[in-house]
Known about the structure:
The protein is α+β, with helices and mostly antiparallel strands. It is built from four helices and twelve strands. The chain has a five-stranded mixed beta sheet, with helices on both faces. It has a five-stranded antiparallel beta sheet with strand order 5-6-7-4-8, covered by helices on one side. Strands 1-2 form a two-stranded antiparallel sheet. It is globular.
Amino acid sequence: xxxxxxxxxxxxxxxxxxxxxxxxxxxxxxxxxxxxxxxxxxxxxxxxxxxxxxxxxxxxxxxxxxxxxxxxxxxxxxxxxxxxxxxxxxxxxxxxxxxxxxxxxxxxxxxxxxxxxxxxxxxxxxxxxxxxxxxxxxxxxxxxxxxxxxxxxxxxxxxxxxxxxxxxxxxxxxxxxxxxxxxxxxxxxxxxx
Length: 193
């Protein structure tokens, strides 16, 4: 599904694998300089968002991934991998847990295979998984003090060493970006990212 930010002046649609978001908004070098000089927001709404609920969600993910997730504190983030029996990466997950829900975002196109695998591994555990990409979208916030500039309506925040990703209601995507831009963010495309 195409992002409403493709309607922004100067937006140039990205090619695969970033179809649905902007490659840039007229000047990718200026966008990159804006992020480096201060901070910026990148539309990553083409990424898939998966929501995992249930009492056993963290111990279950702990048993399936390379990351120690069993004791993940509410609000903490992690990067995790799911490997095949030969140790090759099958799935890469960026995730956070809010105490009731584990929010995961994955590369474009990865959700169907990941959900199929997760469903096959549920057994008798109390977990439910679902692709909520139609309801939620991802924004990447980059630059100096990126953690200090969060989207006001974020459902979840996933922090890693490179950026802060916020998961926002898809219907409010344009409003969330407008609020971030109003606070000084440079709107940037995937090329600057």
